[in-house]
Amino acid sequence: EILRCLVGSEMCIRDRDIIFKTMFSKSENEDILHSFLSTMLELPYDSIKEIVIQNSEILPETITGKFSRLDLKMQVDDKLVNVEMQIKNEPDFNDRVLYYWSKLYSGDLKSGDEYGDLKQSISINIINFNMFECPEFHSCFKVLEVNRHELLTDKCAIHFFELKKINKKINKNNRMELWLQLINAESEEELEMLRQTNVPEIQKAVMVIHQMSEDEKIQELARLREKALHDEASALGHARREGEQIGMEKGEKIGIEKGEKIGIEKGERIGIEKGERIGIEKGKEEERANIAARLKELGLSDDMIKAALNK
User: Fold this and answer.
1) Pairing with 168, which of 93, 180, 276, 295 sits 20 to 30 Å away (CA)?
2) Measured distance CA(295)–CA(19) in Å, rounded
């Protein structure tokens, strides 16, 4: 079942985004989403009057597509909010987060609207890896002046919640941690402990997860997602191995060519040095012979010529 898949192994943890997007998207679970958002955004529960989800469907192509991602985009009163779960750390993930936030922020501005009509846009990223070198599981980024820490605008907020830093021990007094422990649950015992907390929406969420474990449609979505992730991993592994092979062959070829070039250059250098040495020695011999001939013309004996050359 999907519940066993959710809580039974590390591999199936990657189906959590399907579980929680499905749960949060259902109209009968609006109270669960309401409580989750008020907790994660640290807003009073009663201050949230209306939540309008803009992409509640889970389409097949979002499940099976390469590098698929599932998120929940919504308007919370006068704010735009995007919630995404990221299971693995991908290259340039921080840049991708900023890009998607910018699309969320600018995408709502219609032709003829003033810039002042842009809504506060909030990105919530729940990630299953450590991104920052700090003990805190929650990091929030805004646009601030670097020295005075003066806020440029309140319309930008990017949150990261690092699941790897969540304590397994249930803390009933910390609702933010309780919600993340629910998302991070890996055993039936953890779900049961969360069901016994005094947060009605979390209690209901545990019950909904159990109900979803029997939903054949959710099971099929999870199966397709798992297959897509396996296919993606296989494709990336094949591309990596192929790239390594091409790199080795190219490196070997470059090495041979460079070796040949170095060999030729060294050979030329040695040849030039040897040629110069032979030429100098030959020139000295010719010079000695000329001197000997001139001394002989002057009438010197061979012994005298030999003595003169030695000097």
Assistant:
1) 93
2) 111
